Amino acid sequence: MNSALRPLHSRPVQVSAVVVSLLAVCFALLASAEFAAGPRGGPHPPNLLAQSQAEADRKSAGCITCHVATDSATMHPTGTVRLGCGDCHGGKFDVHLPAGPAPGSPLYEETKSQAHARPSQVEFAGGEESMVRPYTRWLRENLDYVRFVNPGDLRVAPQTCGASGCHAGIVRRVQTSMMTHGGMLWGAALYNNGAFPLKDPHFGESYSAEGRPQELRTVPPPSPEDTRRKGVLPQLSPLPRWEVSQPGNVLRTFERGGRRRAETGNPTREEEPGRPDNKVAERGFGTLLRTDPVFLGLQKTRLLDPLLSLPGSNDHPGDYRHSG
Ligand code: HEC
Ligand code: HEC
């Protein structure tokens, strides 16, 4: 098993969507630009590290008419970077609160809703409280809103933390990190419970910027020898939908029904020849909801105990986690 535990990023990895998309090309370009950064790197987006204080202040001006007491305005207490709220959160930083209206008054609320990015789903309209059990609804939110509420979300991190001159390398690597895809956890659960026959991890969690599950691939593909000796995996796929998973593993012993458990070499005399009492049932893929409990369990754990792509369930005090 050890050989399978090495994270994918031990090798150059390119992220590509299941449906071949432009995104894959963008990531590939991003990955190569990362190493070609500097004078040879060609045109860059504005370099936030070189931004003037005046420019940074411009991107906070409207926000701080309401957000007056911020403990760390740039989130970099060392004071080494000059950033405005808008550099990370986006939003309309030129919308100012005119002096006067108190929080809660109609003009205050109106100004706020103009300055803030808006969610596409009504479920998120309640602000922070709506982050209770967001599950995969979070993946369907528009990127402006995701960025506004959490600039550290992995789908927007390339535009925020990974912006030119900042943490591009880390943002790139976290996408294929084991902390993000969790391939080892899924691999162990599926193989050890007999739900998937191969020992090397084949499944991992990853989403495109549009929030769709995507495959992770090592480019160029490793040789079987690389996989065997160094644990470099060729790819990780999204979990299949639990409805199409097929039972056929040890956990089936917990199923209801069947008065006696069958034993090898100890036939039940009353059974009709060729028609065992303990049969595998008329079960095809997903019929009668007879599906594989491990695939279902992993899909649920993905929601309840997420890795880095989804927010936590945030439904009990002291355990608050956002995505990213
Ligand atoms: C008119 C006042 C006002 C303006 C202008 C304003 N905010 Fe807010 N903001 C608030 C209040 C009040 C909250 C507390 C939650 C709520 O009431 O929605 C808040 C909450 C937030 C949150 C938490 C997320 C959420 O939805 O609860 C973020 C992030 C945020 N503001 C960032 C910004 C940024 C960045 C700007 C500038 C682009 C900005 N705000 C401009 C008043 C304002
Ligand atoms: C370096 C990027 C960066 C800058 C600059 C920045 N923020 Fe943030 N801000 C974040 C991140 C990341 C979070 C954490 C979001 C989370 O995990 O929920 C956050 C959290 C917040 C929250 C709490 C959100 C919530 O859901 O409770 C508010 C409010 C906020 N920022 C307002 C501001 C304001 C106002 C400014 C400008 C004075 C600002 N931020 C500047 C990155 C930044």
Question: What average pLDDT do the residues reach?
Answer: 80
What is the overall number of helices?
10
- Structural class label: mainly alpha
Please state the CA-atom Rg, rounded to the nearest Å.
Answer: 25 Å
Strand content range: under 5%
- The stretches of 5 or more residues where confidence is low (pLDDT under 50) are 1-44
Total number of strands: 3
N-to-C CA distance: 28 Å
Main sheet: which strands, in order across? 1-2-3
Q: Characterize the biggest β-sheet.
A: 3 strands, antiparallel
Helix content: 25-40%
Question: What is the H/E string?
Answer: EHHHHHHHHEHEH
Bound molecules: heme C
The best one-word shape is elongated
